[in-house]
Task: structure prediction
Amino acid sequence: MKLTTKGRYAVTAMLDLALHGGEGPVSLADISARQEISLSYLEQLFSRLRRQKLVISIRGPGGGYRLSRPAADLYIAEVVDAVSESLDTTRCGNKGDCQNGEKCLTHHLWSDLSDQIHQFLSEISLGDLMRKHEIRQVADRQNRLQSDNGSETINTERLSDQAPA
Amino acid sequence: MKLTTKGRYAVTAMLDLALHGGEGPVSLADISARQEISLSYLEQLFSRLRRQKLVISIRGPGGGYRLSRPAADLYIAEVVDAVSESLDTTRCGNKGDCQNGEKCLTHHLWSDLSDQIHQFLSEISLGDLMRKHEIRQVADRQNRLQSDNGSETINTERLSDQAPA
DNA sequence: GGATTAACCAACTATTTCAGTCAAGTATTC
DNA sequence: GAATACTTGACTGAAATAGTTGGTTAATCC
Result:
C-alpha cells in the first residue's frame, strides 16, 4: 500500500464519475475540466482503472466512462491499488531468508501496518464518500445562503464520525 | 499524510533505536549495520527526527541517539510526519476559495481520508510494535527449535489482533 | 461516407522525490 | 590532541510523478 497524490487523483476522479454518472457516460474531458487534472494524466489513470475492471468505457460521441459496479460496492482501496501497483515492501522478496531473522521482523512489522491501512480503506466505498459529499454540498449551500456574513462556519461534521468499526 | 518507503525506513530505524536503546545511546553506524540502511541516509532522516524532538543526540565517543520519550509515548504518525513533511493536499491552499465550491469538496474528502489514516497511525506507538516484535522473536525462536523439518510454520499472529479500538 | 467525438495507446519530457554519496565541520571523551 | 560520532550542506543517479505530443480506433451524427 502506497499513499501518494496519484491515489488522490484517482479517487477524486472516480468520485466525480460516481457523482455525475447518473445520466450516462462521463467523458474524461469533463472530469478534467471539473477537477483540473490534465486529460492525458487522466487517460493514464483510467487505462489502469479499466484494466482492473473498476470502470467501463464507451467509445464514440456521447461516450465516456461508467463505474463497473454501484458506487456502494467500489472501495477506496481498490482504486488506490489499481493506480499505484503496490510495490514490494520487504526487499528480501518475502522469502523469509533474511540475515538471522532480525531484519525481516521489522520489515514484517511495516508490512502489517500497511495491511491495516489497506484494510481500513477497504471498508470505505465511493458510495460512502458520495453520501458525505452530498450532505456536505447541501450543508455548504445552506451555510452560504443562511449566513452571508463573514462568520465562516465550516462546521460540517467530519468523515471520522462514520468511521468503519 | 504520505506513505512511502521513506516513512518505513524511519519507523524501522526508530524501532531499532527503541529495541537497542536499553543500555545507552545507539549510534547510527549500528542501526545502519543492523537494518542495512545507508549511514548517510540515516543521517538525513535523524536530522529531521531530531529537529522534531523525537530523538535526542549525544555527541562524542560512545554517543549516538536516544528516544526523547518512552517508546510507549512515541507514535508512528509522528515518525512518518517528521520525515515526510506532509505536503499540501488541497492545492488551493485550503483557503476555501475554489471555483464554485465544487472542486474543494472532493479535495476535502481526500484530506479527511488522510486525516483518518493519520489518526489511525497516531494510536500505534513504538512500544506497541516493540511488544509485537518481542512476541514474534520468541515465537520464531520456538518454531526454529521445535520444528527443524521443512514445515516452515510462519504462524506468528498478525498485528491486526491488537488493532486500536 | 465523411466529419466528429472520445476512448485508446505509446513514446517522450520535465519536475520532484527517493536514496545515497561526499566532504567539511563541531562537540565530547579518553 | 586524537579518536569518536554527531551535524550540516551540497551534490548525484535513479525512479516516480505529472504532463505533453501525436497518433489510432471505434461509434455516432450529419
About this structure: The two ends of chain B are 21 Å apart (CA to CA). Chain B touches chain A through 49 residues (CB under 8 Å). Residues 25, 27-29, 43, 46-47, 50, 57-65 of chain B lie near DNA strand D (CB under 10 Å from a C1'). The first helix of chain B runs from residue 5 to 20.
